Amino acid sequence: MTLNPAPAVRASHLKDDLAALGALGSAAEAAVRARLAPATLQAIGEALRTDFLPLALNLELAEAVFAVAGDRGARTWGTASLLASLDGFFKPLFLGLTRLVSPSPALMYKTLPQGWLTTYRGCGDLQVSRPGETQARLEGRGLPAGMCGMPFLTAVCGTMEAVFRISRYSGEVTLQPFEPGGGQAAWTVTWKAT
Q: How far is CA 95 from CA 104, 111, 161, in A?
């Protein structure tokens, strides 16, 4: 019998999430930090970057950001967090891609499923399809209920929008209608060269 692991997130991601709060401005960052339990900040601060911590810590962060900064702030935070990770944990993957070819959204989105599995444990998976030449559809399947809420899913929009900060493309990420706690979510992305 195989036991499913408890939903968990790599500590490096949570450390990048905390660093990314600065993108919201000092007042919003302070307000978000004030909403977090001291035990949350301590657990993240003391963990090794390679440790896995309970997913609840990631969700607490997303909910605090969304409560303080709303949709736009959650997206800004998601973008800043991914960009911070490119300077850390995901840097080897990112450098490998950019050495081979200038990153296109299609190529970057193709790497997201592996990034998801590296970052999360027991949190379902991410699948990418290409309905058009300048479009992608990303689907999260088997997601824990807490991941299927507006705060977390909106932050993921920002994570996906980071592609437009590191490529020569502009675009839009749209969260598709979803059933809260339903275990599935989908995003559509469209882009154009700038």
A: 14, 13, 19
pLDDT tens, residue by residue, 9-46: 999 999 999 999 999 999 999 999 999 999 999 999 99
> What is the distance between the alpha carbons of residues 93 and 170, in angstroms, rounded to a whole number?
22
Question: pTM of the full predicted structure?
Answer: 0.91
Element (H, E) at 96: helix 91-100
Q: How many CB atoms lie within 10 A of CB 104?
A: 17
Select 8-193's CATH number: 3.40.50.300, 3.10.20.340, 3.90.1520.10, 2.40.50.100.
3.90.1520.10
Using CA atoms, how far apart are residues 145 and 147, in angstroms rounded to an integer? 5
Q: What digits encode the pLDDT tens for the residues 89-111?
A: 566 666 556 555 667 899 889 98
Rounded CA gap, 134 and 191, in Å? Answer: 5
Between the alpha carbon of residue 105 and those of residues 7, 128, 150, 152, the distances in Å are 29, 12, 24, 22
Q: State how far the Cα of 194 lies from the Cα of 177, in Å rounded to an integer.
A: 29
Cα separation, 3 vs 194, whole angstroms: 47
